């Protein structure tokens, strides 16, 4: 058992050291400059750390790049970075597609590539990069330099933005809303309260009779229905008041839904009781006349 544990520990340490020391194995790196018709103008089989020099290409040429990766771990990214050797130091990244077999390639048509290739004739430094999540050290290979000739009508470089302090912004908040004239608001308040004054005046002329409530006192069920009915009506008026002052629509609809059901059910019982007493009173009056 002890020998088995020792063997297992040695195997784990060996695999760990192998994983730590593992690096990218790249071979068969080919670089081709092809004319629009497909004929080869230049071809280089590269091997680290050899770097190609004095490579030139026209604006209509195609840059063909291929390679093969022998690692079991496939790269997450593989690209060639072109960096202009002038004051602007523009970087153009061209990603390569890598198959499951480890073979990767891309074709770069300078005429259809990034607009930075069209700013005129410029020299670029080429760097080949390969990286993945399980191999810490990326593969970096300086391929050399290439001079790409600009088109007959070079593109205009965008004006570089000059980031400077801008003038201070002074916020102007909207002034308070002007209130309506006191006389006008008082007039409309009077118009709103006038119907209530007329209502109270008419009630005073008609007089308030408490006989129905006295009759209901002998029947507790009818009295409870009357109290619930008038209470629900008062609750509905209170909900309307809150809606006019501060409550939003949806809470009001919920409250009105409940109070309306209570008012409907209790109101039916109240009206039925009133109708019954009225019929009894009519029948009593008819008997007296007879």
From TrEMBL:
GO biological process: protein N-linked glycosylation
Keywords: Endoplasmic reticulum, Membrane, Signal, Transmembrane, Transmembrane helix
Pfam family membership, one: Ribophorin_II_3rd
Transmembrane segments: 183-203, 223-244, 250-271
The organism's place on the tree of life at top rank: Eukaryota
Main location: endoplasmic reticulum
One term under GO cellular component: oligosaccharyltransferase complex
Domain (Ribophorin II third): residue spans on this chain: 41-147
Leader sequence segment: 1-21
Domain Ribophorin II C-terminal residue range list: 173-278
Pathway(s) it belongs to: Protein modification; protein glycosylation
Cell compartments where the protein resides: Endoplasmic reticulum membrane
InterPro entries per UniProt: Ribophorin_II_3rd (IPR055374), Ribophorin_II_C (IPR056790), Swp1 (IPR008814)
Membrane topology: Multi-pass membrane protein
Functional summary from the UniProt entry: Subunit of the oligosaccharyl transferase (OST) complex that catalyzes the initial transfer of a defined glycan (Glc(3)Man(9)GlcNAc(2) in eukaryotes) from the lipid carrier dolichol-pyrophosphate to an asparagine residue within an Asn-X-Ser/Thr consensus motif in nascent polypeptide chains, the first step in protein N-glycosylation. N-glycosylation occurs cotranslationally and the complex associates with the Sec61 complex at the channel-forming translocon complex that mediates protein translocation across the endoplasmic reticulum (ER). All subunits are required for a maximal enzyme activity.
PANTHER family linked to this entry: DOLICHYL-DIPHOSPHOOLIGOSACCHARIDE--PROTEIN GLYCOSYLTRANSFERASE SUBUNIT 2, RIBOPHORIN II
Family: Belongs to the SWP1 family.
Protein name: Ribophorin II
Species of origin: Linnemannia elongata AG-77
């Amino acid at each position: 058992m002890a020998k088995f544990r020792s063997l297992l520990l040695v195997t784990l340490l060996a695999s760990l050291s192998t994983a730590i020391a593992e690096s990218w194995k790249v071979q068969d790196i080919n670089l081709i400059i092809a004319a629009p018709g497909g004929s080869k103008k230049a071809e280089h089989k590269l091997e680290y750390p050899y770097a190609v020099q004095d490579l030139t290409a026209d604006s209509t040429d195609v840059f063909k790049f291929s390679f093969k990766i022998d690692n079991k771990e496939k790269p997450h990214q593989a690209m060639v970075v072109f960096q202009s050797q002038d004051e602007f130091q523009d970087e153009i990244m061209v990603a390569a597609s890598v198959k499951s077999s480890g073979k990767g390639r891309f074709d770069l048509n300078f005429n259809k590539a990034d607009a930075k290739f069209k700013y005129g004739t410029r020299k670029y430094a080429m760097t080949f990069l390969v990286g993945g999540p399980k191999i810490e050290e990326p593969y970096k290979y300086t391929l050399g330099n290439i001079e790409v000739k600009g088109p007959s009508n070079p593109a205009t470089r965008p004006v570089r933005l000059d980031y400077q302090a801008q003038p201070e912004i002074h916020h102007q908040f909207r002034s308070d809303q002007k209130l309506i004239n006191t006389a006008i608001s008082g007039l409309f308040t009077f118009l709103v309260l006038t119907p209530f004054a007329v209502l109270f005046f008419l009630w005073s002329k008609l007089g308030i009779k408490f006989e129905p409530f006295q009759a209901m006192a002998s029947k507790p069920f009818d009295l409870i229905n009357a109290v619930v009915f008038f209470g629900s009506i008062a609750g509905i008026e209170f909900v309307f008041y809150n809606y006019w002052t501060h409550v939003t629509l949806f809470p009001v609809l919920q409250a009105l839904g409940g109070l309306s059901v209570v008012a409907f059910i209790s109101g039916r019982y109240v009206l039925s009781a009133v109708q019954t007493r009225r019929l009894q009173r009519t029948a009593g009056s008819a008997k007296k006349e007879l």
